[in-house]
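FW: tagging you since you asked about this chain on Friday. Here's the raw sequence from the shared folder, copied in full. Didn't touch anything.
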Amino acid sequence: MSKPVKYIIENPRDALWGLTITTVGYEKIRPGEPYPTDCHLDSHCFSPSKGRVLQEYQLVYITEGCGTFESSAFGKIKIKPGMMFLLFPDEWHTYCPDKETGWTQYWIGFKGVNMDERVRQEFFSKKTPIFEVGLTEELVNLFMKAIETTDQERSHFQQMLAGIVNYMLGLIYMLDKNNRLDQDRHWIDQISRARILMHENIESCLTVQDIAEKVGAGYSSFRKNFKKYTGLSPASYFQDLKLQRAKDLLCMTDLSVKEIAYRLNFESPDYFSAQFRKKTGKRPSDFRS
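HL: got it, structure written out here
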C-alpha cells in the first residue's frame, strides 16, 4: 500500500451536518526515517521537539512500533501498538515514533458541533486522550474505508465520512471502556454482588457500609469504584431502589405513607416524602392518587 495522505476542503453546507472531515491518512515510518515526513500541509507539519496546535480533532491509531505522545492537559506517555490518541483543537501536543522501531499510524481529522457537544458532556476529555483499543481489524477497515471514500470523492462524500467517524468514535469508546473494566474485573464482581444484595435487602435495615463489608471491600474504595462503575454512589443507588419499591407499595397496598417510610428504613416519614418528591416531582400521597 502507498502512503495516502489526504487533506479535504469542507464547505458551509457540509458543516451543517454537524461533523466534517479535514484529513485522513496512513503512513508507515521505518526505523530511523525522519518524522514527520514531507507530505503534509504546512498547517499540519510540526517539529516533535516543539509540538503544534491544531484547529481540529484528530484520532491517531498506532498498529506497529512504539513512540511517545505528550499534550498540555495530559502529560507524556509511551505509545505501543493498539493504542489510539485523540488530539483536541487549540491544545498543544506532540508525538513521534522511536527511531529504533518506527511505527505505522492511521489518522483522521474532523471538527463540528457534534464532537464539541460530546466533549462538553465529558464523553471525551483532554485529560484522558489515550484509548486502549488493542489491535482491531475493524478499526483498520474503517480507516481504509475512509481513505477509499476520500479517493473517490463522490458527491456528498463528507456525509459518508462523518458516518465513519461517528461509528469509529462509538467503537473506540466501547472498546476502551470495556478493556479498562476487564482490568478491574475483581471490582466489577464485587459491585455486581453488592447490587444483588441491595435488591434483596430493600426492606431490611442493611446499610451500604454493611454491604461493602459483606462483599469484602473497604467502604472508601468500594464507594469510589461503585460510583465509577454505576455513575451513582452506593447510598444514592440503594435509595433509588427503595424509592422504586415505594412506588410499588403506594400503588399495590393500602399501607400509609408513614408505614412505607419505616418499612423501607427511611429515617423519618418527612425525609421519605422529601426524597420521594425530589425523585418523582410528586408527594407520595399525590403519586398514589
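FW: The mean pLDDT is 91.
HL: agreed, and Residues 157-183 form the longest helix (27 residues).
FW: great, closing this out.
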